[in-house]
Amino acid sequence: MGQAAFANIGIPYPELMGPFVGAVEIVCGTLIILWLLTRLAAIPRIIIMVGAIVSTKVPILLGHDFWIFHLPKLPRYGFWSMMHEARADFDMLLGALYLLIVGAGAWSLDAMLTRDGRPLNLLED
Fold this sequence. Notes:
By secondary structure, the chain is mainly α. Helices cover 63% and strands 0% of the residues. Helix 1 crosses helix 2 and helix 2 crosses helix 3 (38-62). The protein starts with a helix and ends in a 13-residue tail after the last helix. The relative contact order is 0.14.
């Protein structure tokens, strides 16, 4: 989404947030594709997807503006309309949650950067 789309939704500072979110998605998506720092890269993806759902799908569910976010023009509103519009958002959110919990796997770059044969885990103390 670009600056104009962010402005239409009601995202504050769209001229900054559009490029920032785009850059975070590119960097974190690339890290996930490379299976490098996967758990760490999943965290910003989760935050972005929750933000996308709250800013664009909750107004569709409610049928009116929500907080600072504006309702898009659709033929229908309510639960089923929101679920139809949110399919990809929920898929990406659940995928990122899975990667955060499970990690990249034994054949990943994360695992190759391990010490003592244990996978790299940036989330444990």
